[in-house]
Amino acid sequence: MKHDIFSKDPRYKIARKEVWIGIGLVIFNFIWWYGFAYGLGSVPANQYSYIFGFPAWFFYSCILGLIVMSLLVFTVVKFFFKEVPFDEDEIDGEGRGVK
Amino acid sequence: MNWEVIIPLIIFLLITFSVGVWANKYVSKTNSFLQEYFLGSRELGGFILAMTMMATYGSASSFIGGPGVAYTTGLGWVLLSMAQLPAGYFVLMILGKKFAIAARKYQAITLIDFLKSRYESKWVVLLSALSIIIFLFSAMAAQWVGGARLIESLTGLSYTTALFIFAVSVLVYVIIGGFRAVAMTDAIQGTVMFIGTFILLIATIVAGGGVSNIISELATENPNLITPFGAEGELTPLYVSSFWILVGVGVVGLPQITVRAMSYKNAKAMHRAIIISTVFVGFIMLAMHLIGVFARVIIPGVEIGDKVMPLLTLHVLPAWLAGIILTAPLAAIMSTVDSLLILVSSSIVKDVYLNYIKPEATEKQIKTASFGVTTIIGILVFLMALSPPDLLIWLNLFSFGGLEAAFIWPVILGLYWKKGNKYGAIASMIVGVGSYIVIHTYFGNLFGLHTVVVPVLLSCIVYVLTSLITNKTMGMKVDYGLSHQTKEV
Question: Which end of chain A, N or C, is less packed with Cβ atoms under 10 Å?
Fold first, then answer.
């Protein structure tokens, strides 16, 4: 292999950490979505409570879920994701459009 | 003909043309044609990246098919559609920086380039190219049919004429502009989609007399419509949850999406794209499907699901505004088709032609081949879409799940698991696609899960086991990677 992508590069450590954050987010997202939808939505429809006109399960699971996930993604990216250069130590002859 | 609806469409098409012409300047100026034509020279910023990912992902089904199903199924389908929310952040986080760095190290222009350098195997390349060409070709043709039907229903032109208009519009800007034109038009189309969705949602709620009113009318008609279980109680929690694999996390395996994860400029662009695309994907999916459900109260009794959206738009908005809004689904279709077209073309030119047919091709020959291949594919798809053969419709059913089952593990494990090798990748691709087709044909929703789940699990197991076993029997191979690493340290 010409270029090893498993070498000890500190950037890979950062990348790996961010993968775990992504997995964590998706698990949280799923639990939130599933928990509210089926937790509140499994009773007969005539016993539903309503928020802004929407059935509560739908409001929490889908609408609030979207808002919470957006805020969470924003926070995580702003505070936990690190900016790393992508090609500083690489030499390649072909112009790849770096300005 | 309804000119108030048609004029915005024409303006929209003219704008996309001019983007193609603009991007062509870069194509003719560049000193690395392949990088520019198939990857836009890795210069995408955050906003464009987010929009092109979202627009490529959101296709005819998000704007036409999906709301149509929501119309008959109720809020349960909106819940299901929210399984797509992770697609907004998960892909870029999982492939993330490692993929961006690896793609640059390997000088990869296509997903297959990456696989080729990672596995150093001709069979991995050929299998991947084959799956991309077959699956995406049929997916593309199906989208063209959708695009033509939409133009047909909006303008009253015949299907053939509509298809011709659609084909010419897409082909012109893709052929002359390449990836940069695709990404830029995606950004415009994505913006149109977002704003269009927003306006339509408001107009629909107003027309229905407010959310409470709409919901109570739905509940009176059939209480199941406002439960998570679907109009007939057909949506089980397990089945709905399995869509998280198909349309949420599994999207990591779609080549048209992964190629975008190697096209951005820097980490900042990636960070911004993650935030923007989460909000955009989430909002559009939520709103469009919700609109579909609400439409049931406003225009009851629509028999054909695909007609719900166009009819609703014309019903709740003045004609000129409807014309503008209805460019959104057309934009969604075009932005998906253009990406697939450039991807299939890159698979043929870069992955097959340059690798195995004519490695010593000159810059000029590559250029001719790229323009030529893109044109020929376009014409072929056009002919196919004129009267779609059954095989194509059949293949299209597999395209999404089939590609995911083929690529997800060779990409992810290839990126993060040192011991993964070419035997694992080949076995996983064959088992993934094979089991997908078998399960789909003979078992349907096995164990009450969507068809895609079992093949994705199987291909993972096969990848890991095959890699471990072949590493053991061919001990040299593992050591190679390790010793190489120690040498470097």
Answer: C
Q: What is the pLDDT of residues B393-403, one digit of tens each?
A: 666 667 788 88
Identify the CATH number of the domain in which residue B143 sits: 1.20.1730.10
CB-side neighbour CA atoms (13 Å) of B286: 21
B253 reaches A (C-beta below 8 A): no
The answer to whether the beta carbons of residues B133 and A58 sit under 8 Å apart is no
pLDDT tens digit sequence for B253-290: 888 888 888 888 888 888 998 999 899 989 999 999 99
Q: How many of the other CB atoms lie within 10 Å of CB of B1?
A: 9
My answer on whether B32 and B117 are in the same domain is: yes
- What six digits make up the tokens of B337? 């088709």
Domain end call among B388, B406, B438: B388
Q: Which of B360, B207, B375 is nearest to B297 (CA)?
A: B207
CA B285 to chain CA centroid, nearest Å: 14
| B107/A30 Cβ within 8 A | no
Q: Which two tokens mark B340?
A: 């697939």
Pairs across A and B, CB distance < 8 A = 188
Shared-domain flag, residues B381 and B451: no
Task: Give yes or no for a contact between B263 and B34, defined as CB atoms under 8 angstroms apart.
Answer: no
How open is the CA angle B289-B291-B297, to the nearest 5 degrees?
125
ipTM of the complex: 0.85
List the domain range (segments joined by +) for residue B478: 417-489
Domain ranges of chain A: 10-80
Q: Does the beta carbon of A61 lie under 8 angstroms from any beta carbon of chain B? A: yes
